[in-house]
Amino acid sequence: MASKTLVLPGETISPDILPTPTNPNLLLKLGPGLRHVPPSTITSTIAGPLCIDQKKNAIWVENNSGRYIPQPNDLIIATVHHSSTDFYSCSITPHTTFPQLPQLAFEGATKKTRPQLNSGSLIYARVLTASKHTDPEIVCYNPSTGKSEGMGELKGGMVFDISLGLARRVLMAKQREDGGIAVLEEIAENVAFEVAVGRNGKVWVKSGGVKETLLVGRALQEADVQGLGVEEQVKLVRKMIRQV
Amino acid sequence: MPREAEPSINERAFVLQALEENIRLDGRALDAFRDIDISFGDDYGVADVQLGKTRVLTRISASIVAPYPDRKFDGVFVIITELSPLASPAFEVGRQSDLETHLSRILETTLRRSQAISTESLCLVAGQKVWSLRADIHILSHCGNLVTAASLATLAALRQYRIPDTSIKGGELTVYTPLERDPIPLALLHHPLCITLNYFENGEKMIVDATLQEQQCSEGEVVVAANPQGEVCLVQKGGGGEVDALVLLRAVDMAVGKVRELGKLVDRALEKDSKMRDKGGISAELSAENER
């Protein structure tokens, strides 16, 4: 389970905080924000809470940084920019190069039955490969199962920008306990809506009318900007619902 | 590479649909501004304006130069705009983008060609020495409506700036340092400000102070520069969908009202700043009481 202490850049992590693995052959995994200085020192490079996961034998520093860097197996919301012969060039963030989405990378797609995406369409996709030297590649199906699992073109609705930290917390399996996000569950009790969260800091919301969609989007953005805890989020949502 | 995030089809459709119901994404009225914050630096002539997430900093500086040979009695006033990549991923260092040309042209016309500053008052020794005023406008963050933010910052900085006092005795020019004589305010003939209005639905709907998203989804924009007395200095419609002449007249009306509002904001900010700087005059200097 994850337990937290606060670290500053340049602090050495003392060995007694490090998790003791049940399986001694399992190596300690270092996540983002930590650097290994051989032979056995680990220093943090950013400020934030240090998270330790005993089960996976991993440690990392949580951060809410500004720009998204594509990592394999991340779910993201991309906008198609233009299409060329074999693939679509999509935009994930305005700062990076265009990832490529092969035109056949959809569930059950063949040359004759592939979906036609226009420039400017929104898609929910998974990052397949991402490295410093090549353009990232994204696909609209799960490579291990071959099913689309909700990925593909997103029709209608609206996209809102949120911070990377909030996107990560919303994507956790148990939003309320681990991530501290109660906004979506609270709103779901009163309003019907669909959401797709991209790890690149974008949330796609679709609901009955403009006001409901705006309610969901703005509730998330307010919870993000003001850094609200679970009870404060519930209060905010109740206030916003009453205004609609 | 410089690239601004273009809105997707879904976002565009949503913004237009919301506007049909007269709803803006941040819940403002169609003619409401975002929160405006005007603050000044320690030196005279530095103004920092925050309009929602858009942020502009202007600095005024002056130096003595020889005048242009065909304008022997006029001082020089230059406006330099700088759009750095810090403000938006669409900007690149050193390359003049369309937005920068648009911005600098509008500010030139509003402040220089409308004679907001009396350039004759900047003349020191005719034909030999004049003040050269320079306004450096730095765009720190771009989230829509750069023109209004930049014009607010520049006007506030100009009104707050104090230029060193001078005197001429027998052909000899003496420039006094701030310790010898208090610097004097600039001679501003009027206080013009720019308002950008974005229109939708063939000019039927106009919004004031559009965010970047609303600007990208709009059909076009009209820039109006006026002063709080109601005199219009500039009406510019560069491209965009065609509109009726009545729409332009409505835009000018709306803009003049908004300029009055903004003018009062600048007045209040300047008052607050002068109170902070006021050291109390002679009686405060002669007082022997210590600050505890």
Automatic annotation (TrEMBL), chain A:
Localization of this protein: Cytoplasm; Nucleus, Nucleolus
Domain Ig-like stretches: 15-93
Superkingdom of the source species: Eukaryota
Xref: InterPro entries: Exosome_RNA_bind1/RRP40/RRP4, Ig-like_dom, KH_dom_type_1, KH_dom_type_1_sf, NA-bd_OB-fold, RRP40_KH-I, Rrp40_N_euk, Rrp40_S1
Keywords, sorted A to Z: Cytoplasm, Exosome, Nucleus, RNA-binding, rRNA processing
Pfam families tied to this protein: KH_6, Rrp40_N, RRP40_S1
Transmembrane spans: none
Family: Belongs to the RRP40 family.
Name listed for the protein in its UniProt record: Ribosomal RNA-processing protein 40
Organism: Lepraria finkii
Lineage, opening ranks: Eukaryota, Fungi, Dikarya, Ascomycota, Pezizomycotina
Automatic annotation (TrEMBL), chain B:
UniProt keyword Glycoprotein, yes or no: no
Alphabetized UniProt keyword annotations: Cytoplasm, Nucleus, RNA-binding
Pfam families the record matches: RNase_PH (PF01138), RNase_PH_C (PF03725)
Entry's family note: Belongs to the RNase PH family.
Record-linked InterPro entries: ExoRNase_PH_dom1, ExoRNase_PH_dom2, ExoRNase_PH_dom2_sf, Exosome_comp_Rrp42_subfam, PNPase/RNase_PH_dom_sf, Ribosomal_Su5_D2-typ_SF, Rrp45
Cellular compartments annotated: Cytoplasm; Nucleus
Hydrolase is among the record's keywords: no
Domain Exoribonuclease phosphorolytic: 33-164, 192-256
Protein origin, superkingdom: Eukaryota
Species of the source: Lepraria finkii
Name this polypeptide is given: Exosome complex component RRP45
